[in-house]
Structure formats: C-alpha cells, structure tokens
Amino acid sequence: MKRCPDKSLSDILCYNSSSTLQASRWRWRSSKKKPTFKIVAFLFFFFFFIGISVRLKWLTKSAIHADRPQNATCPQHFRWIHEDLRPWRETGITREMVEGARRTAHFRVVIMDGRVYVEKYRGSIQTRDLFTMWGLLQLVRWYPQKLPDLELMFDCDDRPVVQSKDFLDPKAGPPPLFRYCSDDSSLDIVFPDWSFWGWGEINIKPWRKVLEDIKEGNKRTKWKERVPFAYWKGNPHVDPSRRDLLKCNLTQHQNWDTLLYSQDWDKESKEGYKQSNLEDQCTHRYKIYIEGWAWSVSEKYIMSCDSMTLYVKPRFFDFFIRGMLPLQHFWPINDRSKCSSLKFAVEWGNNHTSQAQAIGEDGSKYLHENLKMELVYDYMFHLLNEYSKLLKFRPSVPAGAVELRPEMMIGAAKGLHKKFMENSLETSPNKAELCGLPPHDPTVLREFENKKLNALKQVEAWEKDYWENERKGN
Length: 474
Hints:
39% helix, 15 helices, alpha/beta, Protein O-glucosyltransferase 1-like isoform X1
C-alpha cells in the first residue's frame, strides 16, 4: 500500500488499495498427455467435494447464529434494534436505497469475508469517522468471521437527516443511514458513538478504562457525604438550551441548589486536562445531563457516577437510553422550567435520600452492567446482522475503497489517538456467546413506553404540588 504524503489522521484512508482488492486466479496448464481414467475420476471427486465444502461454508455463513446456543437475553435497549429497522421490514433494502444515503454520509462500510473496507467521502468533526471505523474493525476482531457480508452508509454529524415526513408512503424506500443519535421524527439508524474507543481531542480514554476509573471514583465518597447540590460542567455555547441552563446557577440573589461550570477545552488542553478527569467528578449527589446541539457523549459518563442523574427532557436519543426509565434510573427535568424543576429535584432528593441514592445507583448499575464493551459489541453485531438480512443485493467492494487493518491505522495515528487505538485493540476473539436478541414485540415496547410516561406524569404532579405549596407559604 502507498501512503499519502500528508499523514494526518483525516487522510488515513488515502491509500492505493488496488492491490488488496485483486482476487487470486487459478491457471490450468495444458499437457500433451491425455489424462487417464483414474486421474479424471480423482479430479472429478476432488472438485466435487471442494464445491460441497464451499457451499456448506456459504450456507453456514448465511445462517449466522440461526442455531447457535445463546446466553442470557440482551438488555432492554436491544429491543429497539427491530424498531430502528422497521421502515425496511416489508420492502427490504435495495442498492438504490443505500446509494440514496450517500448525500450526507461521511463514508461507506463494506464487510466482506470478515474484512472491513471503507470508501471515504468527506472528513468528519475531529476524528469521529476514524474511531467509528476503528470500532467496526474491533467488532470483526471480537467476532471474527461471524458477521455476514453487508454494506452501509455512515453519517458522523450530530443531528438526524432522514425525516419520516418525507417517506410516509410504505413503499417510499427511505435511505438507511447510520449515525450516533436520532429523534421521534427521523428514521436514522442509531449506532454506538466513536468515544467508546476513545476521544483523543479531549483526553477521554476508551470506555473500558473509563468504566474502571469511574467505578473507583465512586468509592471515594459515600453517597450521603457528597455535595448536596446538582452539578454540571460543559460547553454552554453549543446550544441555547445550555446557555439557558446557566441562568440556574447559584448567585448571591438566587439559589436553585445548583453548581454549574463552563468548560474551556482549550484551557484544559494547555493545562494537561488536570481538571477534567471523569472519575474525579463523582463528588455530588446529583449530576445534570442536558443535550448540546444534539445528543451529548457526556450522557454515559454522567449516568455512570452513582449520583442521581437529573435528566433534562431531551429531543434526541442514542442507542442505550431507550432501555432506561424515569424514577428508576434517572430523574426527569422539565426543559421549559429548568431552574424550578432542578430546585424541586434536589429538594426531593435531600428529603428522600435513600430513594435518591437508589435511583442514582440503579442508573449507574445499568451503565456498568448493560453497557460494558462486551455488550456494546453485541449490540453492534445484532444491529448489523439484522440489517444484513434486509439487503436485497449482494454487497461489493467499491474500486476506491481501502481495507482497514489495525497495523495500518495505528501506524498512521499519533499522540493520544495512537495510544487510545492501542488501548482499545481487541487482541483476541471473544469466547463467550452473544446475548440473545429479544424478538420484535410491539406490545412490550408499548408497555415500556407507558411506564415511562406514567413516571413522567408522577414527577410533574409532585413538582406542581410542591410549587403550589411554596406559593401558599406552606
């Protein structure tokens, strides 16, 4: 392979890949002697058994996991895999549909014979594209030769773009586009984000290491000894909702029981990220999650801290939050009256410390148990495996694609990016079986959504009564 002169991470896929895509060819050599009957018979049976072996291998690969024994049922959020793929359940996915997603995609992924090929169209924010590709490469190393051949388009930007209203006709054929989040009015397919393998730009380690560090950080301060305020630290400039949140900060004239801080990443970078270690931020009883321009990567770090997460009503969702419930895993915050809603949540928690502690710990437990890397890979596998079943065409490697290889990607990386790739490299296949994907069951999803809605209504009622009593002076 020939590398580009510019060895920056954004150009890592600028390779001459023609040599990797050439197939080997067998050549027959002529002979002056006529073959004997024994030779002809031998050759006939030899190629007959070769053909049978290849056919059986193809059939086995096409029926991936049809008969494999499986472990326990996958966590609740896996059920939404079926829902995300619902728009194509009846029609299947054609090549034209996939090509329709190219308009905004950053790259095309082809997995064929257990290898990962990428055709890159444009650069993403920072190294999102690079570490998403790296994550896909680790998946096929974690489950080698297990995924069927497939082809997909990936968009690394924040907000979903495939709007449901544009595809109301059941036969309209929306483009299947993968990204990190979606919303109720979009059809984008939700996939784990790049930071599970590290976010070098702001010194966030791969998820396996982060979980270990936060687990240790949780032990440093007992829950009831933590600061009894709601804590948030982040970039307020990415969205008006976050700027609005800062109005709830503690001042000499008002007290909303919050401690809110603006994060200056340029300053943090110059000072060596000494004030941004995630494991050092598990010191408050309550931590606030609020979206940025779209869903925020900070969600999983906030919710894994044992603190009761005060979850400002979101517009977007990622792949795992759909398995979590208000009052069980987090406390919902009204996005239209943030300050008063936060005040009530903290007051309630400080007056019901055992319940608040249980909510915080149950939310953290969900993250530590159901979002460990083994299950992140299982989610990726099940999603891609179910997606591949819908394909109505045979995937193929584009002429301009490059095969991803660990040594090539690590060799082109520098600094923290290189370190995080080395730290998140899967060096051996997973020996355990996949968790069992729950079947598609709309009834179960409706019941789950009803539980969520009832919990939200309960908090709204409590909050309304609290402020009415405050106004009356009770």
